[in-house]
Amino acid sequence: MSAPISIPRVSLSWLLVAQVLVIIPHLAHLPVWIIALWLGCAGWRIQIFRMRARYPNAWAKAGLMLGAAVGVFVSRGSLVGLDAGVVLLIAAFILKMLEMHTRRDALVLIFLGFFAVVTAYLFDDSIQLALFSLLPVTTLLAALIGLQQSGLAMRPWPTARLAAGLLVQALPLMLLLFVFFPRLGPLWSLPAPHSKGVTGLSDSMAPADIAELSRSTALAFRASFEGAVPPRDQLYWRALTLERFDGRRWSQASAAQLPLAPAWEKRGEPLRYSIVMQPSSQRWLFGLDVAETTLDQARQMNDFRLQRQQPVERSLLYQVTSWPQALREPAGTATGLRRALQLPATGDPRSRVWAAELKRRYPQPEELVQALLGHFNREPYGYTLRPPQVGVNSIDDFLFETRNGFCAHYAGAMTFVLRAAGIPARVVAGYQGGEYNPSGNYLQVRQFDAHAWVEYWQAGRGWVSVDPTFQVAPERIEQGLEEALADEQSFLESSPFSPLRYRQLGWLNQLRLSWDSLNYGWQRWVLGYQGAQQLETLQRWFGRIDARWIALSLVGGGGLLLSLLALWLFKPWQRERDLQRRLFQRFEQLLARHAVRRAPGEGARAYAERAMQALPEQAQAIRAFAAAYEAQQYAGGDASVVDLRMHLRALRRALPWRFTTGRRE
Amino acid sequence: MRTKLEACQSAVNQVLLGKESQVRLALTCLLARGHLLIEDLPGMGKTTLSHALAKVLGLSFQRIQFTSDLLPGDILGTSVFDKDSGQFVFHPGPIFAELVLADEINRATPKSQSALLEAMEEGQVTIEGATRPLPEPFFVIATQNPVSQGGTFTLPESQLDRFLMRLSLGYPAKAAEKALLLGDSRRSLLPRLEPIFNHSELASIQAEVPKIRASDALIDYVLRLVEATRSQPQFAWGLSPRASLALLAAARAWALLAERDYVIPEDVQAVLPSVVGHRLRERADPSGHGGGALVQWLLREVPAL
């Protein structure tokens, strides 16, 4: 018990290694000064270890702590919240390492380290990080082992081996918990750490926004079909509709949030597929027309988009069934149609005149639409991500002057003309196409697949989708953005190292697709293994069970296990004697503080007599306790520990208070 | 009754000066119905102790001086032809006394030794086909001289095991020896001792010994002691169950003398050296007398609680 309280060398080395490994995943979102603080403190710590420097004194510690807190406040604007909290935690982890003096400090540091490893998952839940975090966990365990086992105190590798062994042994338990442990909803909602930075569609669209998106290779979602994947030109993933036009931007109508279910008729064969969506910080989900989902808290809105109650802040898996040939609102609703005819009071006069002329020439909406599409096809319109500047009358300028643009220009212009011609129409924003991954049999849709198209309404036929971009640049629809921009060389020009630019290199592309497939599996089967999916899996294994059954059996099984463990540990059948023994041990500890220690072979009476000689003033209390103990242990007195407790308390009161424990000599 | 035990001890202590603990152990041995082996140099008061004990306890006393030509008949007795009655008449030997002092037991041949030891164990003797009970109580104090081993027959371990205790009196302390030299001759003091107990009283107090409470916790301690002798490498062999029974019986008697009706570990520790000392041998020296060091190890290392 009188082992030195200092930290063994191996443990310290492992802790230093672990610190590096714990902080690495956080580097991306830590302010720079934290890294400087870290390097400084680690250097100081090493100098302390080499006996070239001293431990920081109280003032230095207080200054560092205050400095770190102020730094967090300045760089994050707050001391609470997820982002600031993590920075604060890392700062504490760094500073504690410097201040670490005793074993207890080292234990605190190790547990802080485990916690910091877990917080990294808040920022990144990829498979790489999950695998990487095994490293810091192993080193932290090695440090813990080095701290506890004096036999291994000087040998670093056995501790690491033992730590890795422990981790491997924990695997079955981990799998068991992963499969069976119920996923509880969060008790409080955490704002996602970096919701500002997510790229994706927003609820209003100016043409420049889509151009911005098309520069991003970030993943939007992945989709796995049951059965064959439909051809590319049918993959119009709807996100939302934009119905309000202010002469410059298209935006979502406020009425789109009204909880009105649209009227539609299922027709034709449905498509079934599942989607794993990346965090978007928006509430809408993606689906092919007309989509229905089984996801809780998600519903079909009146413009046929799917929307969830909460924004999607982390990866989300949902199942969708789509009827591509469905008839959508054949009767229409007065307010809905009125919204679909809204135009700004003034502006774009040439387009309005042209629309009136078209209307005169083609009284049927269908004919008019065909004429319009034919116009785009015939006339020298071009597809480019670098459109020329347009003036105040943006539609006029585009239709009659520049004639160059991309999907957002075409969709906006066509909707404008249709409305001006009295045909209800709206812009649909979403994604088009996607890259098929043969190794995982799924589609991956990236931000540069963002697209806008048009749907117009016709009595009896309901809403019909048309894509003017297809008339201008069919390769955009049939082969993707890269082909559409082949002449221009503007595809991903700002990210020269993106592997997506080198798709023509076979092996590289193969590697990229396999890696993506692995990530998709991780997201679908590991991260996506939540509530409903877990229940489904368990039902497949155990037949019809519900959440309550799982909860009950888990609680029951856990309770049984714990009570067996408790029985084994506490052995209630010899409890009374154990309690007496424990009280006697406390009696010994109490006297040991006054330098009266019991030899192993010393009986209670002999010990008490010795203690009485050493502490004559407390002789009364010592004798009383020893006599009570003896009577209960040996004389078969009524085995009640209450007396013993009482005598012990009396003794404690009688003894002068002393802080030193019996351990230190 | 208990005060009488005190009186016994103080009476013996007046004769045998400065040997309180040995007197107490000897009395313990007697109360536990065990036999006593005293191992010491000549002239240390072995005979005086036996005599004094016999006196105060009101026991008949016989002394057998063991020599190499001693025959079993000299101990047990023989039948002699009485020509008046024309029959063989049994003349009981010195063993038919309540307290027998077997002086220098290792001087006799094994045959004669075993005659005594069998009597000690069985509480009866069988001579010429007739079984004769020994008196009750029956208590043997044997003495051995540890030096001048020439022409002796060392008691084998199996015989040693029959003695509940082995004591050694040792030299008296200086003050005690001074009082010894100043006072009357010990032998002249002995006749003046009055018996304090009669037979029935002694029997009843001996019957009380097994009733002394030995709790579970205490038995565990005894078991730990015995287990240690069986498992630790320095012991040539472990204690037998007879030894653990002996240890418990002696501890009970010791507790009785301490006027307690339950045994505590200190009682066991008090009797441990004399009860197990002669039963233990060091592995390094199985024929020697390492018992003392081993007992000290037991006292020191085996957890008492």
UniProtKB/TrEMBL annotation, chain A:
<feature type="transmembrane region" description="Helical">
    <location>
        <begin position="58"/>
        <end position="74"/>
    </location>
</feature>
<feature type="transmembrane region" description="Helical">
    <location>
        <begin position="549"/>
        <end position="570"/>
    </location>
</feature>
<dbReference type="InterPro" id="IPR052901">
    <property type="entry name" value="Bact_TGase-like"/>
</dbReference>
<feature type="transmembrane region" description="Helical">
    <location>
        <begin position="12"/>
        <end position="38"/>
    </location>
</feature>
<dbReference type="Pfam" id="PF13559">
    <property type="entry name" value="DUF4129"/>
</dbReference>
<feature type="transmembrane region" description="Helical">
    <location>
        <begin position="105"/>
        <end position="123"/>
    </location>
</feature>
<dbReference type="Pfam" id="PF01841">
    <property type="entry name" value="Transglut_core"/>
</dbReference>
<feature type="transmembrane region" description="Helical">
    <location>
        <begin position="159"/>
        <end position="181"/>
    </location>
</feature>
<keyword id="KW-1133">Transmembrane helix</keyword>
<keyword id="KW-0812">Transmembrane</keyword>
<feature type="transmembrane region" description="Helical">
    <location>
        <begin position="80"/>
        <end position="98"/>
    </location>
</feature>
<feature type="transmembrane region" description="Helical">
    <location>
        <begin position="129"/>
        <end position="147"/>
    </location>
</feature>
<dbReference type="InterPro" id="IPR025403">
    <property type="entry name" value="TgpA-like_C"/>
</dbReference>
<dbReference type="InterPro" id="IPR021878">
    <property type="entry name" value="TgpA_N"/>
</dbReference>
<feature type="domain" description="Transglutaminase-like">
    <location>
        <begin position="399"/>
        <end position="470"/>
    </location>
</feature>
<keyword id="KW-0472">Membrane</keyword>
<dbReference type="InterPro" id="IPR038765">
    <property type="entry name" value="Papain-like_cys_pep_sf"/>
</dbReference>
<protein>
    <submittedName>
        <fullName>Transglutaminase</fullName>
    </submittedName>
</protein>
<dbReference type="InterPro" id="IPR002931">
    <property type="entry name" value="Transglutaminase-like"/>
</dbReference>
<dbReference type="Pfam" id="PF11992">
    <property type="entry name" value="TgpA_N"/>
</dbReference>
TrEMBL record, chain B:
<dbReference type="GO" id="GO:0005524">
    <property type="term" value="F:ATP binding"/>
</dbReference>
<dbReference type="Pfam" id="PF17863">
    <property type="entry name" value="AAA_lid_2"/>
</dbReference>
<comment type="similarity">
    <text>Belongs to the MoxR family.</text>
</comment>
<keyword id="KW-0547">Nucleotide-binding</keyword>
<keyword id="KW-0067">ATP-binding</keyword>
<feature type="domain" description="ATPase AAA-3">
    <location>
        <begin position="35"/>
        <end position="165"/>
    </location>
</feature>
<protein>
    <submittedName>
        <fullName>ATPase AAA</fullName>
    </submittedName>
</protein>
<feature type="domain" description="ChlI/MoxR AAA lid">
    <location>
        <begin position="228"/>
        <end position="287"/>
    </location>
</feature>
<dbReference type="InterPro" id="IPR050764">
    <property type="entry name" value="CbbQ/NirQ/NorQ/GpvN"/>
</dbReference>
<dbReference type="GO" id="GO:0016887">
    <property type="term" value="F:ATP hydrolysis activity"/>
</dbReference>
<dbReference type="InterPro" id="IPR027417">
    <property type="entry name" value="P-loop_NTPase"/>
</dbReference>
<dbReference type="Pfam" id="PF07726">
    <property type="entry name" value="AAA_3"/>
</dbReference>
<dbReference type="InterPro" id="IPR041628">
    <property type="entry name" value="ChlI/MoxR_AAA_lid"/>
</dbReference>
<dbReference type="InterPro" id="IPR011703">
    <property type="entry name" value="ATPase_AAA-3"/>
</dbReference>
